[in-house]
Amino acid sequence: MLDTYSQSLTTAKTVIKVANINHYFGTGTLKKQVLFNINLEIKSGEIVIMTGPSGSGKTTLLSLMGGLRSAQEGSLKILDQEILGASKNKLTKLRRQIGYIFQAHNLMTFLTAKENVRMSLELHDKYLNQDINAKAKVMLEAVGLGDKIDYYPEDLSGGQKQRIAIARALVSHPQIVLADEPTASLDKQSGRDVVELMQKLAKEQACTILLVTHDNRILDIADRIIYMEDGKLKSDGVDVVAKVN
Ligand SMILES: Nc1ncnc2c1ncn2[C@@H]1O[C@H](COP(=O)(O)OP(=O)(O)OP(=O)(O)O)[C@@H](O)[C@H]1O
Does the keyword section mention Signal (predicted)? Predict the structure, then answer.
């Protein structure tokens, strides 16, 4: 019998479909294949952790699934749009529907917490006539920074900065959020707080999270773990969560 998680997946919408993807860097004699025949289907609301040794291709695959680079071989559909050979313009439009959280938080240092969060709403026409200051404030309150909305990043801790990055990624209610090593620069407790917050908000918004990490302490927040080695997908499933722990 299917468990509740498996049951919910059978009805959930597919947000990313990767089929027979190969990827190469370099040209001529320096051409090197870094992804080999990757097949994956990611559903709406799933929290997927990608893990594996350094150089195994996690970031390359994450950047493809996030529309940060166009695919070279195979087929990759993000929110029903094919990105094989996609133009820069098509990728740019697609990226507005995706939230990004990086290791180094990538906040604008000359903008306050509220301005950093608001910036991601300014990219969307649908928010033009809405009170984006109020929305940014509500989101910062949701990540526990209601009393820091007018602070600049340099006056906040690493964990607080990463929480602003989470607020910025989620404020526009994207269907997909990509996170590359979001806990790498944080201590154990801050890292834990940050991923638990991402998990809570993603579940509330039915948002899919794709997270690349080396941090074994956070694997338990995943619904599914994808393990990569040498550019290949070695294992994929909920059962991997139990094995790794
Ligand atoms: N821009 C690039 N040009 C050339 N080779 C690259 C480029 N980016 C990545 N590579 C190579 O592709 C392979 C996969 O790299 P990738 O960054 O995807 O691995 P990773 O699993 O994310 O590694 P890490 O955990 O160290 O971040 C590696 O051999 C890397 O050297």
Answer: no
